[in-house]
Automatic annotation (TrEMBL):
Source species taxonomy: Eukaryota, Viridiplantae, Streptophyta, Embryophyta, Tracheophyta
Cleavable signal peptide: 1-21
Protein name: Uncharacterized protein
Matches recorded under InterPro entries: GNK2, GNK2_sf, Kinase-like_dom_sf, Prot_kinase_dom, Protein_kinase_ATP_BS, Ser-Thr/Tyr_kinase_cat_dom, Ser/Thr_kinase_AS
PROSITE patterns found in the cross-reference section: GNK2, PROTEIN_KINASE_ATP, PROTEIN_KINASE_DOM, PROTEIN_KINASE_ST
Length: 753
């Protein structure tokens, strides 16, 4: 213990509980002190400033991060029991601010702040995880007696707390989550009063330690201080207990009815005198029929009420959406005039769903007008999604929606005008790359991360972008990034952490493996896309660029090349030559390291955006070691074996384990797409040593499809004396005429080198 005290190891555990407390108390320990404005103090401020974002990211899971090197290292942890995310974030911020104010230089402290939800923030210079701590303890007491009938109160309360302690201390199937040791219950005291109680242990404890902590806490109320009083809030470092005569929390209190004695047996009840009255069988049948009838009526009532509520919510949502956007609706003539009748000279670019024009409104405001193509496949759903969703988002790193136009077949979105076009305009142009120095690129990386964090955690909604790429990052006059193009965004529910789709859309080079192969998307799929973006910003190359990975002519993309250079100890070779080496080499190397963590094959191995921002803002945070990225290329002979397997006709059940494959499935229902087969046949280019880059695509088209369009780009790169010729198959702009958009499901696109 003395050795530990010599090392200023600062530990945080943050636990958010679903309880509404009306008090706020900070406990500062005098066991040790740190120097104000020193490293320890700086680390404390840093971790506390990011706790509100981190707590809302974990969805109830225990969180752990380390900051700093000993003797100024910090460990942090947090969990959420199911309280509202906004309330929880506010609670964490209040607790953090209070600790900094009340404990200016103490190395140990904790706080239980009140508000719509109760949270627990603690830090210490010794590790306290997985250890039972009963002191220091504190309590707040409601001094009035619970009821005039204290005997009845005692019986009901004792039955309630015994069952609650057993329930709370029983480990559930959610380890390292606040739900693991948590219960909130209610018991009826009389027709006018209820008993409400909440018990919680920190999720790092064992079941036995949790039981000990809760029993000691309840015992203090029952025997030592305040038996039969109306309420108590009792706090220990390892557990929390509260009882009141009113609903003090937004938490769902489960009803616990006191166990009642069995009814007395009437010794004459089985005697049927002269066979008069109803038999026991008849009485039982009537009782059962009555109960069943009542249950059926209750079920029907619940179903009707749920449908009525759902309908009302839908009406309210529609009304809200209309009210949000009605004031910013433009007529088509106004937009036509602003863009000079959509003249070619006003055209800024073309995206996946239509063209973008520069316009000037009658008041002189410059705007960007996104005119959706009639043949684009983006219907009313996608248009409504983007118009209504973006109108609710307000962040400096998100492009701002000014209004929309919906007349006849015209679907138009009006955005703020961002003068410096998109990131890819500078990043991938050899003549313009030099205009982005490292400081600007680093600021762009940080700005994008803040914008994604807002979408994932800090807005009122949890939003997955699903189409993060360089062309969807706009740059304002000061080269600050703004995320755009929200047509593919998906809103997650309160407790939703993952979504699934059969319509895989977006740009393949930025797709995470689980999304490209299985249609699964989450915050972590956006993290994967962001990791690819970081590597592109650093290198000035597209992820689809082809690199020679070893002497056997094995080739790979940008992610593969970044991994190879990082593993070989030469990550700075990835840096764009247009920047040149500078005094920020450590920062560049760290960004590459973070990017490789973002593109891990397993989504669970990728960091949350809140953690990424923490990594970017502090060089003292220890980074995990990245594993081999997905689809990492291996030797040519292995691919010859894969090639010999054949997969031209049956692709729905293909499962190839070789990491060098890029598996992207695009499938509908009937027939084949000869246009795409012809495209694939063109992407065969021999290199100097006769290595063949072969891309094979099989697509089955939908019966309603009338036509397919595609874009295809072949890029040649020179690397010293070794010629590398790559073929890119960018089908981001596949468009389909007809009533439905083409639905994408994984088939196999093999890239064999």
């Amino acid at each position: 213990m003395k050795l530990m005290s010599l090392c200023s190891i600062l530990c945080f555990v943050l636990i958010s509980f679903g309880a509404n407390a009306s008090f706020s108390e900070e406990t500062c320990s005098n066991n040790g002190f740190f120097t104000p404005n020193g490293t320890y103090d700086a680390n404390r401020h840093l971790i506390l400033s990011y706790l509100p974002s981190n707590v809302t990211a974990q969805k109830g899971l225990f969180y752990n991060v380390s900051i700093g090197q000993e003797p100024n290292r910090i460990y942090a942890g947090m969990c959420i029991p199911g309280s509202d995310m906004a309330d929880c974030s506010t609670c964490i911020k209040s607790a953090s601010d209070a600790l900094i104010q009340s404990c200016p230089n103490q190395k140990e402290a904790y706080s239980w702040p009140g508000g719509p939800t109760l949270c627990y923030v603690r830090y210490s210079n010794i590790s306290f995880l997985r250890s039972l701590e009963l002191i220091p303890a504190s309590s707040n007491l409601n001094g009035a007696n619970a009821t005039s009938d204290l005997t009845q109160f005692t019986e009901i309360w004792e039955d309630l707390y015994v069952r609650m302690v057993d329930a709370a201390s029983t480990s559930k199937s959610t380890p390292s989550s606040s739900d693991n040791y948590y219960t909130a219950n209610i018991a009826v005291l009389n027709p006018y009063q209820n008993i409400y109680a909440l018990l919680q242990c920190t999720p790092d404890l064992s079941s036995g330690d949790c039981r000990t902590c809760l029993r000691e806490s309840v015992s203090y109320y029952n025997r030592q201080c305040c038996n039969k009083r109306q309420g108590i809030r009792f706090r220990r470092p390892s557990c929390y207990f509260r009882m009141e005569m009113y609903a003090f929390s937004k938490a769902s209190f489960v009803s616990f009815t006191a166990a009642s004695p069995p009814p007395a047996v009437d010794q004459t009840s089985n005697i049927n005198t002269d066979n008069k009255g109803l038999s026991a069988g008849v009485i039982m049948a009537i009782t059962v029929a009555t109960v069943v009838g009542v249950l059926i009526l209750l079920v029907l009532g619940c179903v009707f009420r749920r449908r009525r509520n759902s309908y009302q919510r839908a009406l309210n949502e529609t009304d809200n959406d209309i009210s949000i956007t009605h004031s910013s609706q433009y007529d088509f003539k106004t937009i036509e005039s602003a863009t000079n009748n959509f003249s070619r000279s006003n055209k800024l670019g073309e995206g996946g769903f239509g063209e973008v024009y520069k316009g000037t409104l009658s008041n002189g405001t410059e705007v960007a007008v996104k005119r959706l193509s009639k043949m684009s496949g983006q219907g009313t759903r996608e248009f409504r999604n983007e118009a209504v969703l973006v109108s609710k988002l307000q962040h400096r790193n998100l492009v701002r929606l000014l209004g929309f136009c919906l007349e006849g077949e015209e679907k138009i979105l009006i955005y703020e005008f961002v003068p410096n076009k998109s990131l890819d305009y500078f990043l991938f142009d050899p003549e313009k790359q030099g205009q982005l120095d490292w400081t600007q690129r680093y600021n762009i990386i940080c700005g994008i991360s803040r914008g994604i964090l807002y979408l994932h955690q800090d807005s009122r909604l949890t939003i997955i972008h699903r189409d993060l790429k360089a062309s969807n990052i706009l740059l304002d006059a000061d080269m600050n990034p703004k995320i755009s193009d929200f047509g593919l965004c998906t809103i997650f529910g309160k407790d939703q952490s993952q979504g699934n789709t059969n319509r895989i859309a977006g740009t393949y080079a930025y797709m995470s493996p689980e999304y490209a192969l299985q249609g699964q998307f989450s915050m972590k799929s956006d993290v994967y896309s962001f990791g690819v973006l970081i590597l592109e910003i650093i290198s000035g190359k597209k992820n689809s660029s082809v690199y020679q990975m070893d002497e056997t002519s094995t080739a790979g993309n940008l992610v593969n090349n970044a991994w190879r250079l990082w593993r070989n100890g030469s990550p700075l070779e990835l840096l764009d030559p247009a920047i040149g080496r500078n005094n920020q080499n450590n920062e560049v190397t760290r960004c590459i390291h973070i990017a490789l963590l973002c593109v891990q094959d397993n989504p669970d191995d990728r960091p949350m955006l809140s953690t990424i921002i923490l990594m970017l803002s502090s060089n003292t945070i220890t980074l995990a070691v990245p594993q081999l990225p997905s689809f990492f290329p291996r030797s040519r002979p292995e691919f010859e074996q894969v090639k010999s397997l054949g997969f031209s006709r049956s692709t729905s059940n293909v499962s190839l384990s070789n990491d060098k494959e890029m598996v992207l499935r695009k499938s509908t229902h009937n027939g084949t797409a000869p246009e795409l087969k012809r495209l694939a046949s063109k992407i065969v280019t021999p290199t100097a040593d006769d290595t063949i880059l072969e891309s094979y695509v099989t697509v089955r088209t939908k019966g309603v499809a009338k036509s397919l369009s595609f874009s295809h780009e072949v890029v040649q790169d020179l690397n010293g004396d070794d010629q590398m010729i790559g073929a890119l198959n960018d089908m981001d702009n596949i468009e389909q005429q007809g009533d439905d958009m083409m639905e994408f499901e994984p088939i196999v696109m093999m890239m064999i080198f």
